[in-house]
Write a structure and sequence with these properties.
The chain contains eight helices and 15 strands. With 426 residues, it is of the alpha+beta class. It folds into two domains: 179 residues, Beta-Lactamase (2-Layer Sandwich); 141 residues, Histidine kinase-like ATPase, C-terminal domain (Heat Shock Protein 90, 2-Layer Sandwich), CATH 3.30.565.10. The chain starts with a strand and ends with a strand.
């Protein structure tokens, strides 16, 4: 004998369902929070990068404007750049270039001699700087070895007007990315971690009442079912005693027999409730052993007068005999109660077969058939009122690696409910 299906370490189905809901809620919250933090971080970094670029442009323009103000003419009308060369602006962080019109002669270039990273502006940029009589500044990005540099150009004037341009340019390529990039990434990650923790705690507090309510309901269900078994057993015994004490075929005997049948039906419902409570509380242990389906069917034929069993050979499966007996009982009870053409005396047929590695127990009735032949959903407490019989059979079948098939009879009115399980050699 093999024992499987030990008490679930992950909790009851309700707990698993609520944990799954909690995880989905947290996942959605984290996704939304991640998008919000990423958008905020992107805006912050972009804004900081733009401020840094504007700050650099302002510094370049200031250096170019200062240098342009230091270019002047001597008494002979010659252009002097000594004031620029001697000023701190020529020795600062920017390279200064002074050019004169109309030839474009370079009067001063503070780049080190032989430097290969000393680009000059294009003719279009120089023309734009010369035309900038309002001295608002002309900005350009110049390619250089290893990257690019940013520059600002300002016109300089003599008595006749614009006499040339002065350029202030970075001495080499620099990283202009925002200084807030990595602090934003790290801070955003920490913020997401804190938000996720807070979300997990909040969702846990929100779902805790639902979990307690489900647990209380299942405990009540199990307690009520246990309490009902004893009076039902006494009532069944009383009905049997009355039936035995009456003359066969009398009205009293028929009523006692009907009462016994109703008690048996109520007992079946109670058994289903108990199994449902055990499933909900993850207390169903699967005890696997070789089980003869044909023997279980024969036992049912002795207990149920309305049942006819059709078996042509021994059929063996590996399963839990208690659960399989419960599943067959539910199928037969369902057929007797709902599939006998309005209470007619036509018996219900239980056919057991084995073929191609599968064993089947077919319950065939002559009733109106099923409203839907879709397989019933495996039992999981949902608070609905659709009945427990067929869903419990489906749950038992799934636990044994099988399935339940519902179909209409092809030859005449009626339905077929088939329990299909893996067969083993006898």
């Amino acid at each position: 004998m093999t024992r499987t299906g030990r008490r679930a370490t992950r909790g009851t189905p309700q707990e698993q369902l609520l944990r799954s809901l909690r995880a989905r809620l947290l996942g959605g919250f984290v996704v939304v929070a991640t998008l919000a933090v990423a958008a905020f971080g992107a805006v912050l970094v972009s804004w900081d990068a733009r401020l840094a670029s504007a700050r650099l442009d302002s510094e370049l323009r200031g250096a170019a404007s200062r240098a342009a103000a230091l270019v002047y003419l001597d008494d002979n009308g010659s252009t002097l750049v000594d004031g620029v060369a001697d000023d701190e602006v020529a020795h600062g962080e920017f390279r200064i270039v002074v050019s004169a019109l109309p030839t474009g002669e370079t009067l001063l270039d503070t780049a080190p001699p032989g430097s290969d990273s000393a680009p000059l502006p294009t003719a279009q940029t120089a023309a734009a700087a010369v035309a900038d009589t309002s001295e608002s500044g002309t900005y350009a990005v110049l390619p250089t070895t290893g990257g690019s540099v940013r520059s600002a150009l300002m016109p300089w004037f003599n008595d006749a007007g614009v006499a040339g341009w002065v350029m202030a340019v970075e001495r080499g390529p620099r990283d202009h990315s925002s200084v807030l990039l990595w602090p934003t990434v790290i801070g955003g990650a920490l913020l997401l971690l804190l938000l996720s923790l807070a979300g997990w705690l909040l969702t846990g507090r929100m779902l805790a009442p639902a979990l307690r309510s489900a647990a209380d309901r299942e405990r009540f269900l199990a307690t009520a079912a246990h309490e009902l078994r004893t009076p039902l057993a006494r009532l069944r015994g009383a009905a049997t005693a009355i039936q035995q004490g009456q003359r066969a075929g009398s009205e009293s005997a028929r009523q006692a027999s009907a009462l016994a049948g109703e008690v048996d039906a109520a007992s079946s419902v109670v058994d289903n409730l108990l199994l449902a409570a055990r499933i909900d509380n993850a207390r169903v242990d699967l005890r696997l052993e070789a089980v003869r389906l044909d023997t279980l069917a024969a036992e049912m034929e002795l207990r149920v007068p309305e049942l006819v069993v059709d078996v042509d050979a021994p059929v063996t499966v590996r399963g839990d005999p208690t659960l399989l007996r419960h599943a067959l009982t539910n199928l037969v009870d369902n057929a007797i109660r709902h599939g006998r053409a309005g209470g007619s005396g036509i018996p219900v047929l239980l056919r057991v077969r084995a073929r191609e590695g599968w064993a089947s127990a077919e319950v065939i009735d002559a009733g109106p058939g099923f409203a839907s032949t879709e397989p019933p959903q495996p039992y999981l407490s949902t608070g609905g009122g659709a009945g427990l019989g067929l869903p419990l059979v489906e749950w038992v079948a799934r636990r044994h690696g099988g399935r339940v098939e519902l179909a209409e009879r092809a030859d005449e009115p009626g339905a077929v409910a088939r329990l299909v399980l893996p067969a083993i050699a006898a």
